[in-house]
Each structure stands twice: as C-alpha cells, then as structure tokens.
Amino acid sequence: MIKLLFWPVLVPSFLFAAALGAITPLIILAAIDIGISPAAAALLMAASGVAALACTVPVGAAIDRVGDKRAMTLATLNAAGALALTILALAVPSGWSIALYIAGHLLRVPARLPGDWRAKLWWLKPLPPKTEARQ
After folding, report:
1. Is 15 strand, coil or helix?
2. What global pTM score does this model have?
C-alpha cells in the first residue's frame, strides 16, 4: 500500500511541508521589513493557524459541493491571487503595503486546505470497503 501512496500523496505532502518550513522565517522577516513589528509578525503567523481552524469546515463543504478537481483549481487561483497581493505589498511600498501583506498571507490559508484534504482522503481509496468503518 505504501507504493501506491508514495508518489501521489507522500512526496507532495513532504515537499509542501518542507517548503512551508523553509519559508516561515522569510514570511516573518518580510513582514518586519515592510514595517510590521516583530510581535505583530508573530501574531500574524498565529492568526494563520486560527484562520485554518476557522476555514476547515467551510472549505470541506465547498470541496463536497464542487468536487476535488474544481476545488484544487479554485485553491490554485486563490493562492495565485494571494501571492500577487503579497508580491505587490513587498514590491510597491505604500501606505497599503501592510494591509496587502496581511490580506495576502491570510488568503493563502484556505488555498492550502483542499490539498491537505485531498491527501488525507487519498488514504481511504486503497482500503477495501469492509476496513474503512472498522474501529
């Protein structure tokens, strides 16, 4: 079963987690660079965890409503828009930079969730139906 899950689930999950761990300090440093205090930058990182908790149920309902592939497409478009806001905030210093950076950072949170859901749901596919409900 591990062979079936290695490329479609384990490798992307590992790469995503490694990339997120690598950019987390950069997210904080970029926030400080545009004028956010270190304490507020740390609060921004904590707020993304709270936002993930708040978005989990609505994103799950949206995945059920529109399907896996369409949800991944919408999440990719959302992530691209959030990334554009973040790049704009960093590239064009203005009075709106801090608000754009915070919005871009928090809008990336719901974009991560469909991939997480899809990876977790993949584990159920190779199991025979009689073992799915076993306790």
Report:
1. helix
2. 0.78
Residue 106 · residue 51 · CB < 8 Å: yes
HSE value, Cβ hemisphere, 13 Å, CA-based, for 46: 6
| pLDDT computed for residue 99 by the predictor | 96
Cα–Cα distance list, 105 to 53, 85, 86 (Å): 15, 9, 7
Helix, strand or coil, per DSSP, at residue 109: helix
User: CA torsion 38→43→49→51, rounded to 10°?
Assistant: -130
Rounded-to-integer distance, Cα 87 and Cα 104, Å:
9
CA distance 52 to 55: 5
Query: For position 108, what pLDDT does the model report?
Result: 92
Q: Are 120 and 98 in contact (CB under 8 A)?
A: no
Residue 65: C-alpha distances to residues 10, 60, 70, 81, 121 (Å):
26, 9, 10, 22, 15
Neighbouring residues of 116: CB distance < 8 A, sequence distance ≥ 6: none
